[in-house]
Specification:
The protein contains ten helices and six strands. By secondary structure, the protein is of the alpha+beta class. A six-stranded antiparallel β-sheet has the order 1-6-2-3-4-5. The N terminus is likely disordered.
Length: 234
């Protein structure tokens, strides 16, 4: 089936219904004492600070500066924001913007965290469109990596090889972040199984990743154009 056909199924079905025997081991995080609103204000301030520090594209594109931005995104998505959203319920129609209140579907989870990073996006539109369309909207010049033909162990090895960063992955009927923190690769997503909601699990232990026949990937933090648009957004 072509990429466009499969992604249409993602748009129609959102996140597939739970399988009775699927189990996930979520990775607990220590919740920062600051409120969610305070955290988002801090992210806005940090983005504006980066805009002052990295005024030009060539300056941002320096390896040490890309590493700085990558470290920030990895910690913000993989630790700080996740810690607030952890265990927030999943629902097919969930679109809450407040962690621990209401429920959130997988696509809305991705776009809500991107919006919390002060990324200027059309949240609702990107949340319900095919994951490939969301990816192309975020990184229009970056080819989507089709990793569907790799065995699951090879896929996991590839994620380790790609290195530290924040990625978005599209599965058969699901989507979420993969965060490589330099030591381990984590799948962070709003999980449909038993309506568990927002979890963080090692990719090698993820039933959702293992069972999906489709795996498409983009990198946010390895895309210089994406980072430049982010820090200089008005």
């Amino acid at each position: 089936m072509r990429l466009s056909s499969i992604t249409l199924l993602i748009c129609i079905f959102g996140c597939k219904q739970p399988h009775k025997h699927d189990i996930v081991n979520s990775e607990p995080n220590i919740v920062p004492r600051v409120s969610y609103d305070e955290m988002k204000r801090s992210i806005i301030g940090k983005r504006k600070d980066y805009a002052i520090r990295f005024t030009s594209y060539p300056m941002l594109a320096k390896k040490e500066n890309i590493n700085t931005l990558t470290d920030y995104w990895v910690n913000a998505i993989g630790n700080d924001l996740y810690s607030k959203w952890q265990n927030t319920s999943w629902d097919f129609n969930g679109n809450t913007t407040k962690p621990q209140q209401g429920a959130i579907a997988c696509g809305y989870f991705v776009t809500t965290l991107l919006q919390a990073m002060d990324l200027k996006i059309a949240r609702q539109k990107l949340s319900v469109c095919p994951s490939s369309a969301m990816m192309k909207a975020l990184v229009p010049k970056q080819p989507i990596k089709n990793m569907s033909y790799e065995s699951f162990p090879c896929f996991c090895d590839s994620m380790d090889h790609f290195g530290k960063g924040v990625y978005i992955i599209g599965l058969d009927f699901h989507t979420g972040f993969i965060v490589n923190d330099g030591k381990e690769s984590w799948f962070i997503h709003s999980y449909y199984v038993r309506r568990q909601g927002v979890v963080k699990e090692k990719i090698r232990e993820s039933v959702a990743l293992r069972s999906s026949k489709t795996r498409w990937l983009i990198s946010l933090t390895n895309d210089k154009d994406f980072l430049y648009r982010w820090i200089h957004a008005k």
